[in-house]
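[User] Once you have settled down, look closely at the record that follows, and write a paragraph about the fold.
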Amino acid sequence: MSAELLNQLLAIGDLMRRDMARAFAGTPLTESRVAVLWTLRVSGASTQRDVAVALRVSGKNVSLLVDALESAGYVHRAKHPTDRRAVLLELTDSANALMAKMEREHAQLAETLVAAVSPGDVATVERGVTAIAARLSELVDEAAAAGDAT
């Protein structure tokens, strides 16, 4: 990978974070809180432990995020139907509406970004980005495991 390609990938990551910060300005949402909402939107009602595993964060971290989301009216805690020690996290109606809106905006942005690529190159770009993301995920996991081993 050329240094310029890495610079472009870093710039894309920065631009995406800045756009998310702009979109969440004036709301109680953050990138981490939205990650919890996305997880619940995709998985449905889940325990905090399941959300923590999906996001690869600690249970304490998820608990703090859920506290903030519950206070803001995006998530509520419900009794687990079969495990009296567990609590299920569920999206509220307003959170479901917000997530549906985000999904539409996400699809529109994807369409707009893909339109910047020549039609004949789209499949190649998708394969390349997928491969880069998979390798980066492996490297992050390896680094985390090495850190855990020390």
